[in-house]
Amino acid sequence: MFRHPVGIFPPGARWYLASIAILALLCVAMHLSLQIKAQKQAEAAIHNWADAAEVKIGDVRYHLLRNGLILKKIEIKRGNDSLSIDHILVSANPTLLTGEAPRLGSVVISGLQAELHHSGQLNAWQHDKKLQRIWQAANTLQVDDGTLMLYLADESAAPLIIDAIQLRQQVQGEVRTISLSSQFHGAPVQAQWIRSGTSHWSSKGEVSWQEIDASLLTATIGTGPSFGYLSGEVQWSSGSEAEKPEALSLSGKVTLDPEEEGDASYVSTLKLNGTQSDDSWDVAINSSGWPLDSWGAYLPEIEGRQLQGGVLDGELLLHRSDAGLLFSSSKGVLHNIIYAPIAGSESENWGVESLYYRDAKLDSEHRKLSVTTLKLSRPAITLQPLIRKNRRSSPAPLWSIHAEAVDIDALNVLIDLPEGDIQLSGLSGTCTLTSKGMTDIKLKSVAGNDSDDPEWAIQGEVLRQGGTLNAAKLDVQAKHIPLTQLRPLLPLKSSQSSPLILDGTTSLSVNALLNRGEWLLHGKATSENPYLAHAGNRWMAESISTRFGPVGTGLKKQHVDSLTAEGWHYIATLIPLSLQTAGQDAAARSDQEKTWWTESLVAGKWDIDDIRWKNGKISVGQPDSYWVTNAEFGLSPLAANRPSRVSLRGEMGGGVLMLDGKWSPLSEPMRFLGKISLESATPLFLSEWMTASGMPKPVRGRISASLNVENGEEPGHYTGKVSLNLERPLAEHEVTANDPMISRTGFNTIDLLSRLAEGNEQINLQFPVSGNWNGEPLDLQLLGLSLQQVLRDSAEKSATVISTSRSGKKRVETRIRLHERGGLSLNERIRLLKVVKKMKANPKLVVDLVPKWTGEAIDFESMQRIQYTHYLIGRFFDYRGISKQRVFPSAPTAQDHAGEIASIWVVLSTRK
Q: Which residue ranges traverse the bilayer (predicted)?
């Protein structure tokens, strides 16, 4: 100091400067001493306060001159909640910070990390006086870069993460202003609020957010939309006055966009306006297209299904208190409602396109729902009547539901059955909804433009038992229902090897009862033009009617009173006679001949009291290849392990077919006891079958046959007799290498007939049949094998082959032109009458009706005309007393080709 540059000063000045320097050093020393003392006092005070407040502080620094306190590594825990702060700068004296009435200038917080759990711990923070004093005492509070993880009711769900928190608090007198900016999973969230007053205070504020991913909220909160992006803002105000409780009011608007920055026309909107007082909330909600994805917990379950989706347009009043959650609404519309099965169920979703309501009230706590009016548009439900519902470990709570008037438009019901589905479409009508179920149901199909469109009509009630729809009484009427839609209800099912083809329409009248989960049905049905086809076999009718009941679930048998068919036609597959000989295995034969329809009836436990088929036909191969016409069939009853009385009357090849006896079609194996007879039939109906089998076509003849079967002397045995008579048999003289009779009898068909006729144009065969029903069942295969053995033995006895051609003495008496319709002319009847007189005069005369055809080949129309003319001539002879055994219609052959005129030659000859 005494050196340059001050050394130039005079001595007095130099001593003055030296004194100042010494004083400065003394001040620094005093400051350091005070700083050290203040630091120790601050550390002691802060740590004492921290211990009392249950706060951990890692480091404390106090700046005496700046009156600034720096706290580092602060950790606070309250239950499962935790709060950690890297750095806090507080402008305050430590003694003022830790006192009962702290006074703080400013607080700057950085590096805040908080984890809060919504499990009752928030009250611990709100009632912590020591921490609340610090918050309330700060004139200025600033939080930089904070992060909050908030766990709500479901602790297993991912937390809500709010980060990039910037908070500012400013206190001026009794007014506290707070502003907040942050991000929720990247979406901006901002808030600000103002509080004023002390004993009588008020506050107001607002919060806004943009494009928050709704799925993040739903996964944690459990309510709200499950998809889309949320934006909105909410304003609130609250306050307290003397002798008045604290009150809170809020209003706001929330929007939901299905896509981020999507089309505004698809945005859903929710407007809120509510108040809180006395621990209760009253909120008015205006909803426009707001989704209800997560509201299933507040609404009743329906048949094991819970609300999964839907949107709401309407105004609601929400009241929430300790008593629960109450909703009320004067009117509104719900769209695209989906009720999905509860986890573990295999049921289908139920849906409603739109639901309009009036005066709705819902009490979720007491499980009550009442609505004055409901209008459902296009509801779709699936019923599974045969599937038992699994009992839940915790049964769904019972709801009290009431709707005075329910209007239903275009209801679609899908009845899910093991064999397929039944669809009831377009049902409209009304019903009443009560806690007991649905009553006064009146549903009917909406009439279409076509008078033959399917029509359904349902009346009755469906009641609840034990929380589920478990009782019902319904009257079901239906018209013009396609038979294919009722396939699951029919006794006949498709076999594994071949599907069942159905066609036709049905009308129904059914009384359906549901009691304790079991369905019972009684009623009648009529089908128009039913058609069934299976494995090449076809059955059809002009109409079929039935009366049934009881049928349904839980029954030992399904009972049908009667089954009546009019104008039926059975078309069997043409199966040629194979080259196989008599060594076929009986067990394999039995498997081949198992009938699919018997398996269906036995499996379904069906019993039919009476079957009557009237005015029928049986064809083999082509539909017009009739084997039996004017058939009347009867069977009663048809039941498993019970013999049925069976009868069949009809015309076969112009002869009379009769069948009477007892038949057991549902037994294994089938059994028949009785008589089958055929009198004076022409063999022409066998033409297609014999040609397909490799045999020559029959040209002429009359067949009479009978089969008598009785019980044998031993139990389980049968015995019978077969008689076969062929008069004047004639076949086309054509031998083929694949004639099955060669391998079966050793002779071709032509030689076989010649040997058996033995020159008198007549074949008579008789042979017995007997056996055990289980070991050797009496069936077509056994009869065929027995017949071929008799044919072989009889043919071998004859050493001479007699010609069976048309050669011999014959006269053409007259010619009758081929007729397509109508009757014989007067001239034709006169000419035929002359033939009748000759035949009556000579009983040995027989008449051949030989067709003469024109053209290049015999077509279908020509064949029809030939058959019809045969019928007219035969009817004339029968009317005049000439036995059909003396009239022999012939099939057209190549040698019968005529030059110009097609006709029937009436040829007389003498019986040999």
A: 15-34
Spell 620-642 as b/e; 16+ CB within 10 A means b.
bbeeebbbbbebebbbbebbbee
Q: In whole angstroms, what is the distance from residue 304 CA to residue 349 CA?
A: 10
How far from the centroid of its chain's Cα atoms is residue 102's Cα? 72
Domain boundaries, the chain: 292-387+397-435, 567-797, 810-910
**CATH T-level topology, domain 810-910:** 60s Ribosomal Protein L30; Chain: A; (3.30.1330)
In three-state secondary structure terms, 357 is strand
Q: Phi/psi at 562 (nearest 5 deg)? A: -150, 155
Compute the half-sphere exposure of residue 513: CA atoms within 13 Å on the CB side of its CA: 10
CB-based burial label for 618 (10 Å; 0-12, 13-18, 19+): buried
Cβ-contact 443, 411 below 8 angstroms = yes
Q: How many CA atoms lie within 13 A of 593 on its CB side?
A: 16
Q: Is the pLDDT of residue 15 over 90?
A: no
Three-state SS at 742? helix
Instruction: Report pTM.
Output: 0.76
Kindly state the helix (H) or strand (E) to which residue 402 belongs, with its residue range.
strand 400-417
Q: What is the pLDDT of residues 666-718, one digit of tens each?
A: 888 889 999 999 999 999 999 898 888 888 889 999 999 999 999 998 998 99
| Count, residues in the chain | 912
Structure tokens at 299: 């609404």
Model confidence at 390, pLDDT cuts 50, 70, 90, reads low
Q: How many CB atoms lie within 10 A of CB 88?
A: 20
Q: Are 854 and 899 spatial neighbours (Cβ–Cβ below 8 Å)?
A: yes
Is the CB of residue 59 less than 8 Å from the CB of residue 42? no
Asked whether 497 and 535 are in contact (CB, 8 A), the reply is: yes
Q: What DSSP string runs through 868-890?
A: HHHHHHHHHHHHTT--GGGEEE-
Is the distance from CB of 890 to CB of 810 less than 8 angstroms? no
Mean pLDDT of 818-839: 93
- The residue with greater pLDDT, 307 or 33, is 307
% the chain with pLDDT above 90: 37
For 630-643, what is the mean pLDDT? 94
Task: Compare 633 and 778 and report the one with higher pLDDT.
Answer: 633
Structure tokens at 807: 């050669």
Biggest alpha carbon distance in the chain?
A: 191
- The residues, any chain, with a CB within 8 Å of residue 65's CB and separated by 6 or more, are 31
Beta strand 268-277 with 187-196 is unpaired
What are the tokens at 555? 């029954």
Distances (CA, A) of 737 to 557, 677, 692, 707, 746: 54, 33, 13, 32, 12
Kind and range of the H or E element at 834? Answer: helix 826-841
d(CA 110, CA 113): 9
- 430-440 mean pLDDT: 90
Mean pLDDT, residues 313-334 taken together: 88
Helices 749-757 & 780-797 angle (0-180, nearest 10): 60
